[in-house]
Design a protein that fits this description.
This protein is mostly helical. Helices cover 73% and strands 0% of the residues.
């Protein structure tokens, strides 16, 4: 009888081979390129297209200016008046200053006149917007006055103030105030009735109603009027300075015309256009801040 010896369970088993843990190196993440991608998209969407358009227009202008054209070419403007672009803040005398200083002088007058127009215009528009009867009574008058050209107010302002500086500020004020009043009135009239009912339930006073209900609701209308008004104010000061004199950008254009410096006029127009663009974008930015991004 064959007896098979059974191994005892307590018999130590053969030592198993050691398992070597395979260490996988941790891959470090590359720096986040989201910021650079966003900057790239902004540049491609907002900067590259206008640069291409402007470069194409300048090239076309340069080609059409050959052959004895009466208007100077972009190359001639750069050669004769490029120093006005490269040195905007030079001071060589009382009247011989850079275009940067002239623009700042004009902007100072615009800031005062437009600031007054914005304050008074929003206040009047808010009051008129609360009354249908009052709006019907003053609307024809406003529609008549807003069509008066800015320079038509200049003789009246000179006769009233007997000084060119307050006269120019008045012209800015009377030119910019009408779109502000009209748009503010329309915005107040467009406030939903539910908002007014909530204000009545909460018993908001006039100041609380203005700051918490009226301004947020009518902000798109108000800032549309402000953007139109600041553009008209910038146009008015340039026109007024041509007649009142001084060191502003408007008088510079008139003086350059009298001196037959046509290239200087083109450079001044560039300054005027860029400044107007910046003013419009500034008012739009303030509108987005006040409305918390609801205004595009």
């Amino acid at each position: 009888m064959n007896v098979t010896a059974l191994k005892s369970k307590t018999e130590p088993q053969a030592a198993s081979k050691p398992v070597i843990a395979e260490i996988t190196p941790i891959k470090t993440k590359k720096p986040d390129n989201q910021f650079f991608s966003r900057v790239k998209s902004i540049v491609l969407a907002n900067i590259v297209p206008p640069v291409i358009v402007v470069a194409s227009l300048l090239a076309l202008w340069q080609l059409l200016s050959g052959g004895g054209a009466s208007l100077p070419s972009p190359l001639e403007i750069w050669q004769q008046s490029g120093d006005l672009i490269l040195e905007p803040f030079y001071v060589a005398g009382t009247q011989d200053i850079g275009l940067g200083w002239r623009v700042l002088t004009s902007l100072e007058r615009v800031a005062v006149g437009f600031g007054l127009a914005a304050f008074v215009g929003v206040a009047i528009g808010a009051v008129i917007g609360q009354s249908q009867w009052l709006m019907r009574g003053v609307d024809p008058l406003f529609q008549i006055l807003r069509t008066v050209p800015p320079l038509a107010w200049l003789p009246i302002s000179l006769a009233a103030f007997m000084d060119s500086r307050p006269s120019a500020i008045f012209v800015i004020f009377i030119t910019a105030i009408w779109p502000i009043i009209i748009n503010t009135t329309a915005g107040v009239r467009a406030i939903p009735q539910d908002y007014r009912n909530i204000a009545a339930v909460l018993r908001l006073n006039q100041l609380e109603f203005f700051t918490k209900i009226m301004v947020p609701s009518a902000a798109p209308y108000i800032f549309s009027g402000l953007r139109i008004g600041v553009g008209l104010a910038w146009l008015a000061i340039v026109a007024a300075e041509m007649l009142t004199g001084g060191v502003g950008i408007g008088f510079f254009i008139w003086d350059a015309w009298n001196s037959s410096k046509l290239t200087d006029i083109f450079v001044a127009l560039l300054y005027i256009g860029v400044t107007g663009f910046v003013l419009d974008r500034l008012v739009a930015f303030i509108g987005r801040v006040v409305s918390r991004g609801t205004i595009s």
